[in-house]
Amino acid sequence: MSSEPSIFFSDVNERQGSFLRRTLLLGGGATLGIVALTGRLAQLQVVQAEEYATLATNNQFNFRLVPPPRGLIKDRNGVVIAGNRPSFRVLVVRDETKDLDQTLDLLGQLLPDTLERRRTIIREVNAAPRFSPVPVKSDLTWEEFSRVNLHAAELPGVMADMNEARYYPHGGAYAHVVGYVAKVSDRDVKAIRDKGEDPPSILFNPGFRIGRQGIEKSLDLDLRGVAGGNRVEVDARGRVVAEDIAGSRPAVQGAEVVLTLDNDVQQRALEVFGEESGGCVVMDVRNGDILAMVSSPSFDPNLFVSGVPSKVYRALADYERKPLLDKAIYGTFPPGSTFKMTTALAFLDAGIDPAERVVCTGGYRYGGRTFRCWKRGGHGAMDMHNAIKNSCDTYFYHLSNRAGVDRIARVAEDLGYHQTYDIGIAGQSKGLMPTTAWVKKARPRDPVWHPGETLSVAIGQGAVAATALQQAVMVSRLANGRKAIRPRLIKSIGGKEQPSGGDVPDLPFSDQHLDIVRAGMAAVANDVTGTAYRASQLGLGDIKMAGKTGTAQSRDYKAGESRGPRNAVWSRRDHALFVAFAPHDAPRYAIALIIQHAPSGGSADAAPRAREVMKVALLKDPEMRARIERPLPPEPTGPISEEEANFGAAPDAPVDEAAPSARPAPAASSGPRPYLSEEPR
């Protein structure tokens, strides 16, 4: 029995009903979608039209910050010592490049030196905000600038333009005092945030520079100015297609800063050092204005504006003469014999008779040790005047403990040692002035001050340390004779005059005591037997200097060890110092000059250099020039008076031991008290 296949047919009505249900569902869903879309479009175009129009405009335009031109820094005569100059540069915008590596490869063919900084460039480009141009190279030559523009079509995301770059026209002459600018670092941003403040947006602009040292750092906010902005139209990819001039705002240049420095004096001060290391400060003793503040060796601050190569920086940092260190305010040195005026004032304050004589035989025996005088064989009988003139160590050894270290320290601080000054540059070294209180903290295992240590302090050795600026303040106060002059470096900021350094309290010394010390300084430079006679002759008519030499040990010497010849290892040489003021009969300018590890000593190395710097300061002063150029009085035809013959000798009448230590009330004049010279004018 065979079976046959069966064919079944579904019901036609059932199939038609299923189709209609699906049609209704799809149609209803589509209708609902159209209704929802229509409603949303109505909301966007009618209800929220204004809101989204604003957002669309904002997407169409970007506001790009423009760094402001940095404020100029000038010297007292209007000479620009830190300015701005036009600079061609090439920039890369990461978001406009198809392939950053490929772009940098092509750019490297045009500018080969960018290959050396490739890793740094990639890091900076990736860290920059979106669509923010990042400088790849600055200070392009005209040929480089033209080459980049010629191949601009082949370099997507690369552009070349001209901006203003910081420029220091005098190179190393102002590197330490003015400082330099450099790129903003992560530490700069962190320091601001650590204060609880929000970093300004301009700090994140790759072309912005911030002050790093000196005046550039301390007055950075004044010099920075106010950032401007360009309102630019961009396409969907963020590329600039046009600029909205009306919506842009110009940058405002920073404030102009005028310093008290004199360019000619500053340049000469650096020049006289040659290859030697040290610091020099020149001050106006009437108002404290600093005419020169130099550290040698120096460096070119222009190297740091675009980023100094690491090899160059390491060479500067590792050089034993430390060109990056400001030796005028940060470097401290034992003052040596230039400290003897301070010690002499302490002796007078203690009631020691300046006519008292001490016999120098070449040394002083104390506590089982012989403290040597610099002159073998000794100076013979010395009073205070001749001890300063001849720089006799034995005299100061012998009397030092009658004054005591605490009195010496107090007088030193009255003269300006062991202090920092508000000159607009922070971080100055305070130096060191030992006392009986200091030793308890400094030497807890041996907290007692030993009298033998006072002998070293009396001649500016031992623990005593000072900066060139403190030395200049000391000699300025001695020269002024009335006021405790304070240094001033910033003359004006944005046209606003800064306070004078002459508006200060009186000195706590009597006129008699100051005259004794200043007469000794005059003899140092003008008596034929003075330690700096040959090196102190200015050759400017009747204008003479008063000064004091110093040669300070830089290390301890073993018994019988020689201090070494001129060709000794540099780091083992002594320091040479010279302080002076001029004219000695009507003080106007003071100088302190230190040569680190000098070939010889104060009279041979420091004094001649200080003389040359002082001559420039005097020759630039109109009143001094008039005095120099006036005809000399006719030479006397009669016998020389006793007063003329004895110039530079100690005064005959000793100062009364009971003379008050406090200076009598000053006369009506507020200027420096005229020096009571034994030389007729």
TrEMBL record:
- The Penicillin-binding protein dimerisation domain, residue ranges: 66-243
Q: Where is the composition biased (Low complexity)?
A: 649-674
- Say if the entry is tagged with keyword Transferase: no
* Chain ranges of the Penicillin-binding protein transpeptidase domain: 278-615
What are the alphabetically sorted keywords of the record? Carboxypeptidase, Cell inner membrane, Cell membrane, Cell shape, Cell wall biogenesis/degradation, Hydrolase, Membrane, Peptidoglycan synthesis, Protease, Transmembrane, Transmembrane helix
Which domain of life does the UniProt lineage start with?
Bacteria
**How does the record say this protein sits in the membrane?**
Single-pass membrane protein
Instruction: Cite the InterPro entries for this sequence.
Output: Beta-lactam/transpept, Beta-lactam/transpept-like, PBP_dimer, PBP_dimer_sf, PCN-bd_Tpept, Penicillin-binding_protein_2
A GO cellular component entry from the record? plasma membrane
Q: By its UniProt entry, which Pfam families does this protein fall under?
A: PBP_dimer, Transpeptidase
Q: Which GO terms describe its molecular function?
A: penicillin binding; peptidoglycan L,D-transpeptidase activity; serine-type D-Ala-D-Ala carboxypeptidase activity
- NCBIfam families xrefs: pbp2_mrdA
Protein name (Swiss-Prot/TrEMBL): Penicillin-binding protein 2
Organism this protein belongs to: Brevundimonas naejangsanensis
